[in-house]
Design goal:
With about 270 residues, the chain is an alpha+beta fold. The chain is built from ten helices and five strands; from the N terminus they run H-H-E-E-E-H-H-H-H-H-H-H-H-E-E. Strands 1-3-2 form a three-stranded mixed β-sheet. It has a two-stranded antiparallel ribbon with strand order 4-5. Helix 2 (about 20-25) packs antiparallel against helix 8 (about 175-200). It is elongated.
Length: about 270
């Protein structure tokens, strides 16, 4: 494939036909081609929805299986709440990026991952067990000076782009928006869980990952943050004419307008 001929939708259809769980997650994520990123990445947009951005130059250079792996990788970042509640520390760094990928790639077959991926129990990470949490890998790498020095010498970093998550541990979105995104994630995973259980088909999702998804779905939503964001966005403008304000279109000819804003909430 050439970048101009590449169409991610073809890979999405192929992946989703065999992966019930990832099929449902994919339906809730907008895919945006862009050359502003070297590879791919996911983010929460200003409306609290999840987006996946990908570089067609990067994706077209991968095999079909590797493209499947990239899609699964990005979807798992969202599924494991790396964008909402699993951020470690106050500042993003390379170790955090690597830790996130190690946690994700534990659940993806190696043949579906590009060669530059960070994989537990492989290469420089041979001593790190698979299927641990992002926080576990982060703390382990920070505590292992020899491993940290090797990573610095190799210049190793994450396969995908995590800069879309924000400039620091709090990200560049408000706490209210994060709560909205987390609520949407819980709803999305709950429906995906129900669909997989109904069809008795989770695809390649491991038992451990299924348990984490069920645990996340059983948690509570911070309803105060969600309501606070909803009230802030639910504004209604009432216009009144006043001579105290100059009319921008007809100055000193017609009266200006004054806009008052108030919440219009029913509970």
């Amino acid at each position: 494939l050439t970048p101009d001929d590449f169409d991610l939708q073809n890979d999405i259809v192929g992946l989703l036909s065999a992966e019930t769980f990832f099929a449902h997650v994919s339906r809730n994520i907008q895919k945006i081609p862009t050359r502003s990123l070297p590879t791919a990445g996911v983010r929460i947009n200003e409306g609290g929805y999840y987006e996946m951005l990908y570089n067609p130059d990067f994706m077209s250079g991968l095999t079909k299986e590797q493209r499947f792996g990239v899609l699964m990788h990005e979807y798992l970042h969202i599924t494991l709440a790396h964008l909402t509640s699993r951020l470690v520390g106050k500042t993003f760094d390379r170790v955090m990026n690597i830790a996130g990928d190690l946690a994700i790639n534990s659940h993806i077959p190696e043949n579906k991952l590009p060669g530059e991926c960070c994989i537990p129990e492989k290469g420089v990470f041979a001593d790190l067990p698979a299927k641990q949490a992002m926080e576990w890998y982060y703390n382990k790498i920070k505590q292992d000076k020899d491993l940290s020095e090797k990573l610095n010498a190799m210049g190793l970093d994450s396969m995908d782009d995590h800069d879309l998550w924000g400039d620091n541990g709090e990200s560049n979105i408000s706490s209210e928006m994060r709560a909205v995104a987390k609520a949407r994630l819980k709803e999305m995973l709950e429906k995906a869980k129900q669909e997989c259980d109904k069809k008795n088909s989770w695809g390649s999702v491991s038992q451990q990952l299924q348990a984490e998804i069920r645990k996340f779905c059983s948690g509570e939503i911070d309803w105060k943050s969600v309501l606070r964001y909803f009230i802030r966005c639910s504004r209604r403008a009432d216009k009144t004419h006043t001579v105290k304000r100059i009319n921008k279109r007809f100055p000193y000819i017609h009266a200006g307008t004054k806009v008052s804003r108030k919440s219009n909430i029913a509970i």
